[in-house]
Every structure is written in structure tokens, then in C-alpha cells.
Amino acid sequence: MKKGYFFIINSKSKKARKIWNAVKEVLAAEGVPYRSFFTEDKGHAQKLAETVQSIHGEQAEAIIIVGGDGTIHEVINGLHKKDIPVGFLPCGSGNDVMRGLGKRKRLDRLIKSILNTRTSVRRIDVGCLRSAGKGRFHRRFVSVAGIGFDGEVTKLTNASWYKDWLQRFGLGSLSYTISTLRLLFSYQPGDVMVKVDGRTYEFTSVWLIAAGNLPYYGGGMKICPSALPYDGKLEICIVHNLSPVQVLFLFLTVFFGRHSNKKGVTMLTGTDLSIVSQTPLTVQADGEVIGSTPVDCSVLPSMLTIKM
């Protein structure tokens, strides 16, 4: 096989299968060499990416992900070299990676752009989460890592019946809003110690901490509005010392990125972040539950090559 495209498709997504059928027609019409792989279960996309990189790396023009942010998260955790470009055909409930990259093209245009060998590639940063505590983990992320309330929202959303149901109607992002409202008045914020680039901060009654490589998470919430994927830094948002009603009104401003200067919001910037809490807080990244605190978070500059 001469150099071609390797597609990793989320087989559990009806929308992903529909998009793949459209892509196959374009590939056949233009005579583009390719291979396709369908995920079988959670974690399989990561294994597929590892296989493509190790066995077919020299033959890969690019790896194209047909799926949502969760599939993207798995694939980038299966790639340990940055020389294989990655492209995205988004079809998830949130699609915050594409939203954050500012590449909300029509599907047909996006397909043609990715398959165009003259389309430029670009290297972007990725975030890295590590924990040596109970349930240790080491994961990379593209968009945002969230700790605390948003970790619990992610856990509830991913286990809910309404996420897939809403996604059938193109309303998948609403599932995060529903979960937020379900948890808002029962969640118990706690005290947290945060260290950013060697400087220590202590916060009481913390609702959430978000570390953003890109601005968006939760289906369009612009939680880290100034985050850029090529500046070698993470933007950090800490929400603390607010009542549930105050948090509710704050979330209304988050969708527009206008929360940064509000009461109970602290914004920081750094390359290395450590979080220790009195009680374990749920950690999510790219909309996938990873583990719990304590956790260290850092940025890996120019670690991922994308083609869009």
C-alpha cells in the first residue's frame, strides 16, 4: 500500500457511521488509498492508534478520527510520536475540540480539506495529567481537564440515558446542561491546595478547577476563554466560595466566556499545576472520567500534529 489515510471510526455512534459512509464515497470517487478501523469498546481507539503508529506509521498520510471528543482523547493517548498528522471528523455530543480549534467547517469541505495533500499541518500543545496516588493514571488531553463539580457532571452525563437520546437530534451538548442542573444543589464543594509553577494557593469551598489547552468543554462552555493550543501554557479557572444559585447564574456567563472577572472566579496561567484536596475530587479530560485527585497537570508543547 502506498501512503494513504487511516480512519478510526466510533462504531457505537450512528452519526459516525453515517459520516463514514459519506467519506467512503469521496474516497472511492477520488481514488484515495485508505484503511478503516472500527472501535469495538471503550479504550479500543487507543489500541488502534498504537497499532497504526507501530505497524503502519511510515505509510500513514494521516490518521483521521470519525467520532467525538472521547474518541479523539483515546487516539491521542495511543500516539507517542508527533510526526503522524491527525485529522478530525467530529460527530460527538460536545465536539469541543473542533470548537476550540475554530474549525467548524461544513462536513463536505472538511473532508476535502483533510484529503488534500497540499493542506498544511500544524503542531499544537497537549495537556498531560498524572497521578501517583490510588488509582494512578497518566493521560494526555487536547481540550480541557476538569476537577471537581465538572468531573461529577461528566460522570453523570456519560452514564445517563439522555446523552445518546439527545444526540440523535443533534442536541448532545444539552446533556451536560441537564446533568449540571441535576447535581447543582447536592454537590458539596471542598478545600483545595493548588500549586502553579511553584507558587502555592489555598482555596476554600471549591466547586471546580479547569485547566484549558483549548477554551471549551461541556458542549460549548467557554471555561478558559483565553486558552491557546500553541502558546506552551494552560489557562486555569477556579470557581470557589459561591452558593449553588450563584454558580447557576455564573454558568450562564460561561457559555460566552464572560465569567473571568466575576466574583468567586480566579484565573491563572502556567505550565505546571498540582492539585491536592481534603477529599478525592473526580478528574475528567476531554469529556472522559480519568480518576481522582491528587493530580499533577502540565503542558506538552507542540506535541500533536493536526491536519484540518
From TrEMBL:
Belongs to the diacylglycerol/lipid kinase family. InterPro entries: ATP-NAD_kinase_N, Diacylglycerol/lipid_kinase, Diacylglycerol_kinase_cat_dom, Lipid_Phosphate_FormReg, NAD/diacylglycerol_kinase_sf, YegS/DAGK_C. Keywords: ATP-binding, Kinase, Lipid biosynthesis, Lipid metabolism, Nucleotide-binding, Phospholipid biosynthesis, Phospholipid metabolism, Transferase. SUPFAM superfamilies: NAD kinase/diacylglycerol kinase-like (SSF111331). This is Lipid kinase, YegS/Rv2252/BmrU family. GO terms for molecular function: ATP binding; kinase activity. NCBIfam families: YegS/Rv2252/BmrU family lipid kinase. GO terms for biological process: phospholipid biosynthetic process. Its cofactor is Mg(2+). Pfam families: DAGK_cat (PF00781), YegS_C (PF19279). Residues 1-133 form the DAGKc domain. Signal peptide: none annotated.
